[in-house]
Amino acid sequence: QVQLVESGGGLVQAGGSLRLSCAASGRTLSQHAMGWFRQAPGKEREFVSAITWGGGNTYYADSVKGRFTISRDNAKNTMYLQMNTLKPEDTAVYYCAAHAQYYSLTSYQSDRAYDNWGQGTQVTVSS
Description:
This protein has strands spanning about 5, 10-15, 20-25, 35-40, 45-50, 60, 70-75, 80-85, 90-100, 115, 120-125. It is mainly β.
């Protein structure tokens, strides 16, 4: 069983930056696409970004495109989300997740495609 642990969240002013990390332990995730999701108070969890198993392809929600950058280091079994030009509407709990299937991007924007989740890290952007 793999465990995912997010870190790097915090309080930042609008326009600032944060870098989230997602460290995996238990087994390698180098054969799985991985994603970041977020959930704001009173809202459903939403897709933020995804990256293929080798890191060669990345995908973003329109709301974060051009501001966020996803990456991964399979040697460290770790994924990252660099968040720049943060806005108050980016305030949410951010979760990392591993896709349930090997070498698959099926339904990568749906949280139902992922079967391993971290506990989440809070990101708060003040105006």
